[in-house]
Amino acid sequence: MAHNDIEKRPVSLKEEFNDSQDGSGYECEFSPQEQRKIIHRVDRRLVVTVGMLYCVSLMDRTNLSSAAIAGMTAELKLNVLEGTISHYSIVTIVFFATYIVFQPPATVIVRYLGPRKFLTAIVVLWGAVMIGMGFADSYGTLAALRVLLGILEAGFFPSCVYLLSTWYTRFDVGKRYSCFYILGSLASACAGILAYGLMQLKGREGLNGWRWIFIIEGALTCFLGIVGYWALVDFPDKAHESWKFLNEREARFIIDRVNRDRGDARPEPWSLAKFFKGGADIKVWGFAMIFFNTTTVSYALAYFLPIILSENMGFSIGASQCLVAPPYALAAIVMYATGWAGDKYHLRGPIIVFNMLLCLIGLPIMGFHSNPNVRYFGVFLTTAGANSNVPATMSYQANNIRGQWKRAFCSAILVGMGGVGGISGGLVFRVQDKPGYHPGLYACIACCLLTLIIVVLITLKSWSQNKRADRGEIELEYNDDGDQKGFRYTY
Predict the structure, then answer these.
(1) Which residues of the chain have pLDDT under 50?
(2) With b meaning 16 or more CB within 10 Å and e meaning fewer, what string describes 430-444?
(3) Percent of the chain at pLDDT above 90?
(4) Within 10 Å of residue 55's Cβ, how many Cβ atoms?
(5) Do 393 and 291 touch, CB atoms closer than 8 A?
(6) Where are the transmembrane segments (predicted)?
(7) What is the pLDDT of residue 263?
(8) pTM given for the model
(9) Taking Cα atoms as reference points, which of 215, 204, 210, 212 lies closest to residue 64?
(10) Which of 285, 300, 355, 450 could form a disulfide with 425 if both were Cys (CB 3.0 to 4.6 A apart)?
């Protein structure tokens, strides 16, 4: 196949499997059955591995809430206010200061070092930091370790988003992002139950129960990071070098498949100008703002849900730890269902709207109903909508970006704004607003409404540009050498 011959519309996985030859004259050397086996091998090796590592990533950055009600707040005096912000909120948000700053260079580093070396190294290192948090003797020490954790975790999520986008076509990636994030959601669901079990180690070796949460989970992270070195794979152009994961013919099939869809599977020469040029596209900032709104709600739940269940809804500490799990289980179901529907019907914007409507129904129920059991039902809807929107937004962006370095820049900006959402999520539920936390609920509702407005604006702009491209007035997202024309935006 000549790499500058691309179809005028993207080739879906279903279409490619129905016929090994497409309208451009390209004929694949693998049968449809062999193609399925190769793709499924990639799924098992890549999606499962990064998903398992993301489990510990999400668990390690959000287990503060479980430790807080297990005795950490009282022992380290985290309810003390610095102005209007509590020490607990400061500990949650200092993580994101370095998390945001170190993300753009991380997406450049991963392209050169390769994801297998880079990702597994930072996983092992932040696992060691987590173990150190179990021995923190003051608020200042805990905050400093959270800063270091932010530096190390900064490279993980954007690199994974970037890595997955290089392996799959535009209408295959939604389900894979969903599966990737589902594993993280399941970690959030089980984290509370795991934390409750680890609390029972209180008194062992003279350590309080909350310390064992950090120590055991940190040791688990180090173990999975070491295992990940042999399990993780590199970018498609290096796939045949990753422990005989794919041979050269199979790797070429993956590269050709992505090239036929969007023409950017092969690595481009390094260019700082190309990297930052992505910032000139206003849609990139629209996607980033959607991600900010989404993560504000999802991080607010991650950092405060056990506290809200305990203080606002009257559940015991043990029940509050365990009742976190069911809403995240529902989120996993909604996440995969919307990811599947988005890929099958080539939809992105409507999926995001649906998820935000779930939040807009759930938040008022969660905050204002008189019955705590009904308020807990609102937690289900809010958790499902907010968390399902994370992979939906990643897919939305991935479908509308082309070029290796623009993709790297946009992944960094998207996840960077997610980090800013983490800061706002760590601040919306303030100590002085308990037990109702109404200002925080209003802030989350405002984020959901803003997302709906941005999706409408991006959809109108994309529709208009697609029409102009159909009339031959403009060419969308073409490479610098002018090849691979025929790209259309997805909305």
Answers:
(1) 1-26, 480-483
(2) bbeeeeebeebbebb
(3) 29
(4) 22
(5) yes
(6) 46-73, 85-106, 118-136, 142-165, 177-198, 210-232, 284-309, 315-337, 349-368, 374-396, 408-428, 440-460
(7) 65
(8) 0.76
(9) 210
(10) 300
- Token couple for 296: 């504000």
Gyration radius from the chain CA atoms: 23
| b (16+ CB within 10 A) / e for 384-415 | bbbbbbbbbbbbbbbbbbbbbbbbbbbbbbbb
- Count how many residues are written for the chain: 491
Q: Which of 122, 109, 106, 1 is nearest to 50 (CA)?
A: 122
Measured in degrees and rounded to the nearest 5, phi and psi for residue 266 equal -85, 140
CATH-assigned architecture of domain 44-257+278-470: Up-down Bundle (1.20)
Domain extent listing, the chain: 44-257+278-470
